[in-house]
Write a structure and sequence with these properties.
Order of helices and strands: HEEEEEEHHH
Number of helices: 4
Helix content: 25-40%
Shape: flat
Number of strands: 6
Largest sheet: 4 strands, antiparallel
Oligomer: single chain
Distance between the termini: 71 Å
Length: 172
């Protein structure tokens, strides 16, 4: 009967440890079917119903209006590992280019046509996220709202320094 060498056994143990640790690190949220409410909470239909997306008022500005539904404002989502948002795009508005570093996003257009909302009508979309807190990184604010050297940005985007200075001046 032939056995594995000590080197092969050590390699297999390292590989097994790596797989176990990687799997654990990839899913930091506690996911469960149902999270019991805090003591003293009246557990009825109201606990499982959010009315936050009803009768939303929105600004008619250049950017989409976002109303989020997450565990902070709808406790019934606790433990489910999800969050949601309603996006309202006034005519001619945009959603700033962005990423969600801790989750993926699925966007469903529920009213209108969305292509940088070139129409004269309001567009509504519903987003769902694979995380209770997907995070948000605004690309314009991240690139032009910090102290990255103008020369680096000018060369990277192949535009004039005037454009970079103008974009930077518009960030909070």
């Amino acid at each position: 009967m032939r056995f594995l060498s000590s080197t092969a056994v050590a390699a297999l143990l390292c590989l097994a440890a790596f797989v176990v640790l990687s799997a654990h690190a990839a899913d930091p949220e506690e996911i469960r079917d149902f999270a019991p409410p805090p003591p003293g909470t009246n557990l009825d239909g109201n606990y499982f119903t959010s009315t936050k997306l009803r009768n939303i008022n929105f600004d008619k500005g250049a950017f989409a209006n976002v109303t989020t539904i997450n565990v902070n404002n709808f406790p019934a989502l606790s433990g489910l590992g999800v969050s949601n948002a309603l996006l309202v795009y006034p005519p001619g508005s945009v959603n700033v280019p962005h990423t969600h570093p801790r989750g993926t996003e699925t966007l469903f257009v529920i009213e209108g046509t969305l292509e940088i909302n070139k129409s004269k009508h309001t567009v509504r979309a519903y987003a769902s996220f694979s995380s209770t807190n997907a995070g948000l990184v605004s690309l314009p604010r991240t690139l032009f709202g910090v102290n990255i050297d103008f020369e680096v940005l000018t060369k990277s985007f192949e535009v004039s320094p005037y454009i970079i200075k103008t974009l930077s001046a518009q960030q909070p």
